[in-house]
Amino acid sequence: MIAILGAIWVMFGEDPARDQGARGEATFEGLADRINDAAGIAVGQGDTTTHLNKVGGEWRVIERDGYKADRAVVNDFLRGLALSERREPKTSNEQRFDKLGLGDDALAIKVLDSDDNALLSFQMGTRKDSPNGRSLTYIFQKKDTRSWLVSGLANTSADPAWWLDAEVLDVAENRFSRISYGDIRLERPLGDSKYVIADLVEGEIAQADWQLRDPARVLSNLNFDDVRKMGNPLTDPVGALSAETYDGLAVRLTLFEISGAVWAQVSADYDADHADEGESGTLPAAPADGAAEAAAIIERTRGWLFKLSDYDAKVLLRKRADFLAGKPTEE
Asked: Where are the domains of the chain?
């Protein structure tokens, strides 16, 4: 028997004590039946590792002080693991793993249950998306004899920011009535699609309509690139703005420059009296409970700073001159 096993190893380079697997089999045997037991995820690459824990039904990113993870991203990741199938066996020579992205740059992935028992552990290499919307990825599990090309795995990253639920605001653009920062106030009368600059000085000419709408577009679906706990003392603000809707919601942003990036502190409140004013109107996009909307924004943003994209920061830091196509002529 020893001679036979030795001959197999010499001929095929396979360790008969390990699982060779077969095309069409589940990549992670038995995982589909236990995927709902997942309570921890670790994704490492080089010196960076992201840990996610399931707390009270919500996934949290540990390296971001427990900020909420994007539920859809986590669900896609776990679903892909459960449904993945082996498509094509690849090299068993670990010296050639670099060509498959399974060398030093590979993602080291672990999924744990609530008792910290490993549901699976593997290396994830190069991933390719195909025109039919299906992905193929190179992976290696230590229990296998070789690497494999497998289907179904979702895109993944060891960067903690990649896992975050990046939504800050979700307010329909047509709800905004007034946006103010510094000495500039943009107003939009109810029923009008265009903003105007309040108190234009003689000789000043406003920029094109689409440029006046930029702040509303940015604020209506404000997302962030990263998040951090607010600490004291904060640096002096580099900007501030407020936005009001016809139906009583008010959102305020205070902007700080930290380590070469712009970070926003966000707050909100709701004015029922303003919502009841005749001129405020009621919009189809307005929530049934404006106070609850404001409370949800406060709950999501209190105590946090949000790193803005370069484009969003540029728009929200505009000065009066940035909204003008012409300026008064100096005598």
From this structure: 2-163, 173-326
